[in-house]
């Protein structure tokens, strides 16, 4: 993970780097640091904490031609000041920031130690700084040294590098971890994503793997590693604007993003249905129809959305399997002769999925990527891409992206079936979501109770089981309350032993088929003293149910139900004083395995 920034020639360098790092904190926020080019040695500021604390250390009057910055999600070494980036090579010739993980760092560390290089940190990044310095001392040229170092490095990296004494050029290299160039008339920029650069430039170039080079005030030079040839680059623009990252009066991005769900559904309808027909690529639909196995791969919340997608596509008679990407990456199972892989990823940069793609490419099977991030690695690697059009999601806990994933999978299944009823049904869901938004005071009241607990259980059957898993993940990641999502019928096979006086058990009731057995499960936990909170659909509601949401077709019931669960997690975290948008130990874009 980690976020990196760099710039040459920017008049507001200090504020570009600091404000830019703040927009990248979703990538990690254990520690942060900056370096500015300076005569004798770069000026370096590092802190084991968030960027707003770093900001206080940097003089307002600071001026420099070149600067780099980093916000860290620790992989090698604790989040201390020593381990915070930027890191400096042994003789101080190179100062750099790194996003990624170097797999062969132990071997390189040994090799460089044997050559007399000293290390001051526990990071794999310091190895890179010393390796570049070592190669530079042999070759006398930064680009040659970079190229040689890339040949020796195994793993993922986005690097931004100051070469001491070169006041004009800022060097970079990329493999697997994302890195973009922002090109302006009299300044050039580097960053892990668009957000830091939006205020400064309109033209962007997304570096591809094995590219390296430099930016200066008025030049961008990109080289491809194989062949060392100068790459032809063409700039593109982004639909994102700096307004997209405004809170618009909301106290937290998570709340704003929960309440954007209705718009997300509307955008998807507009993009995939023209009022008469579905707008999916016919080749994609043919590929799905012709395949004898659909294999979903995803992580976390996106994995939970795939569980719903499985139900949609199985209802069409397809053979569908869903795997957690980090498992499938090492234990791949393919039983069909003609499978289609479907990767679902909000960020499009998740390392576990990128690992899976390597396996898929090896077998030469087709890949559909469903992502919110156009131009991301997983978009570029795919044969087909379906965009989620959810707008940028900033809170670390995913909310509207899940809504978008489920909706898009419903649209895809409906297109395959030729079912036009889905569109009015989705408008019905939009109305239901608005009613859920009006119930906020109820959620706050329940959160008062939940906030005092250390364990909670979510139960459901069918679609309600899938939503229980997502509801439970949301609660644990932002409130730090331990929780589990379980199929209602499974409780008595073990977990019921954990039910005690006042244990919160949240039960979803959306399906008439299983309304009776799930209510029996309710009685079972009630008899053991649990504090039961029922979230039911109107036509299945009973007098004591805590929250009753408007009826929608069962296969879409996860949309209003998940919104309730997201609100409950949000308000519970608020009452516990947790850092809602940036929960501990997490990062939004998980670019390490
Ligand atoms: C939870 C959450 C994560 C992500 C997971 C996959 O709120 O956001 O579980 O869903 O890290 O990320 P993507 O979808 O970007 O591949």
Any low-confidence stretches, pLDDT <50, length ≥5? Answer: none
Query: Helical element count?
Result: 18
Query: How much helicity do the residues have?
Result: 25-40%
Which word captures the global form? globular
SS-derived structural category: alpha/beta
Overall pLDDT confidence: 94
Structure description:
Strand 19 (455-460), helix 16 and strand 20 form a beta-alpha-beta unit. The protein has a seven-stranded antiparallel beta sheet, with helices on one face. The chain is globular and about 75 Å long. Helix content is 35%, strand content 21%. The mean pLDDT is 94. Residues 299-302, 345-347, 350, 397-398, 473, 477, 590 line the site of fructose -6-phosphate.
Give a concise summary.
By secondary structure, the protein is α/β, with parallel strands linked by helices. Helices cover 35% and strands 21% of the residues.
Write the layout of secondary structure elements.
Layout (H helix, E strand, L loop, with lengths): L2 E6 L4 H11 L7 E6 L6 E5 L3 H7 L8 E7 L14 E2 L5 E6 L5 H10 L10 H15 L2 H11 L4 E7 L6 E6 L4 E4 L4 E4 L11 E4 L4 E5 L4 E5 L28 H6 L2 H12 L9 H9 L2 E6 L1 H15 L5 E5 H4 L10 E7 L5 H13 L3 E5 L5 H4 L3 E4 L12 H18 L4 H16 L2 H11 L4 E6 L2 H17 L2 E6 L16 E6 L5 H12 L4 E7 L9 E3 L8 H18 L18
Parallel strand pairs: 14-15, 14-16, 16-17, 17-18, 19-20, 19-21, 21-22, 22-23
Antiparallel strand pairs: 1-4, 1-10, 2-3, 2-4, 5-6, 6-7, 7-8, 8-12, 9-10, 9-11, 12-13
Helix pairs in contact: 3-4, 4-5, 7-13, 7-14, 9-13, 9-16, 14-18, 15-18, 16-18
Which key features would you list for this structure?
six-stranded antiparallel beta sheet, alpha/beta, seven-stranded antiparallel beta sheet, binds fructose -6-phosphate, 35% helix, 593 residues, 18 helices
């Amino acid at each position: 993970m980690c976020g990196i920034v760099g710039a040459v020639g920017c008049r507001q360098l200090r504020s570009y780097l600091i404000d830019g790092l703040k927009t990248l904190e979703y990538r990690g926020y254990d520690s942060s640091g900056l370096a500015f080019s300076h005569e004798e040695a770069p000026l370096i500021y590092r802190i084991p904490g968030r960027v707003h604390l770093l900001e206080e250390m940097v003089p307002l009057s600071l001026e420099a031609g070149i600067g780099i910055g980093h916000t860290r999600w620790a992989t090698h070494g604790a989040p201390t000041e020593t381990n915070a980036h930027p890191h400096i090579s042994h003789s101080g010739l190179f100062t750099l920031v790194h996003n990624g993980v170097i797999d062969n760092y132990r071997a390189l560390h040994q090799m460089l130690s044997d050559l007399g290089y000293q290390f001051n940190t526990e990071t794999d990044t310091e190895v890179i700084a010393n390796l570049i310095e070592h190669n530079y001392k042999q070759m006398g040229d930064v680009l040659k040294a970079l190229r040689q170092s890339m040949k020796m490095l195994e793993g993922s990296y986005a690097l931004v590098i100051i070469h001491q004494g070169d006041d004009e050029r800022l060097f970079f290299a990329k493999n697997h971890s994302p890195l973009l160039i922002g090109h302006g008339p009299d300044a050039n920029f580097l960053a892990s994503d668009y957000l830091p650069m939006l205020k400064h430039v309109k033209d962007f170039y997304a570096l591809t793997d094995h590219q390296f080079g430099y930016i200066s005030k008025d030049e961008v030079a990109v080289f491809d590693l194989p062949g060392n040839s100068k790459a032809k680059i063409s700039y593109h623009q982004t639909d994102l604007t700096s307004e997209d990252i405004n809170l618009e009066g909301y106290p937290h991005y998570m709340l704003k993003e929960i309440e954007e769900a209705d718009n997300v559904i509307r955008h998807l309808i507009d993009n995939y249905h023209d009022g008469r027909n579905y707008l999916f690529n016919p080749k994609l639909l043919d590929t799905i129809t012709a395949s004898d196995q659909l294999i979903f791969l995803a992580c976390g919340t996106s994995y939970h959305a795939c569980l719903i997608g499985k139900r949609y596509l199985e209802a069409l008679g397809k053979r569908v399997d869903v795997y957690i990407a980090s498992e499938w990456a090492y234990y791949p199972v393919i039983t069909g002769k003609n499978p289609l892989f479907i990767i679902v990823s909000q960020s499009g940069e998740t390392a576990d999925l990128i690992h899976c793609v390597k396996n898929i490419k090896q077998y030469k099977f087709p890949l559909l990527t469903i992502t919110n991030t156009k131009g991301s690695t997983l978009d570029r690697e795919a044969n087909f891409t379906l965009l989620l059009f959810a707008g940028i999601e900033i809170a670390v806990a995913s909310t509207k992206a899940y809504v978008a994933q489920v909706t898009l999978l419903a649209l895809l299944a409906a297109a395959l079936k030729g079912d036009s009823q889905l569109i009015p049904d989705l408008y019905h869901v939009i109305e239901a979501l608005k009613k859920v938004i009006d119930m906020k005071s109820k959620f706050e009241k329940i959160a008062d109770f939940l906030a005092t607990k250390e364990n909670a259980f979510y139960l459901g059957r069918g679609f309600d089981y899938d939503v229980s898993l997502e509801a439970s993940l949301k609660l644990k990641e932002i409130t730090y309350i331990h929780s589990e999502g379980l199929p209602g019928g499974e409780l008595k096979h073990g977990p019921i032993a954990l039910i005690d006086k006042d244990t919160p058990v949240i039960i979803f009731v959306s399906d008439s088929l299983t309304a009776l057995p799930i209510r029996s499960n309710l009685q079972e936990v009630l008899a053991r003293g649990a504090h039961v909170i029922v979230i039911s659909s109107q036509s299945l509601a009973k007098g004591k149910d805590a929250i009753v949401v408007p009826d929608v077709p069962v296969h879409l019931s996860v949309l209003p139900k998940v919104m309730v669960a997201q609100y409950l997690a949000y308000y519970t975290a608020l009452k516990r004083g947790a850092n809602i948008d940036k929960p501990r130990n997490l990062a939004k874009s998980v670019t390490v395995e």
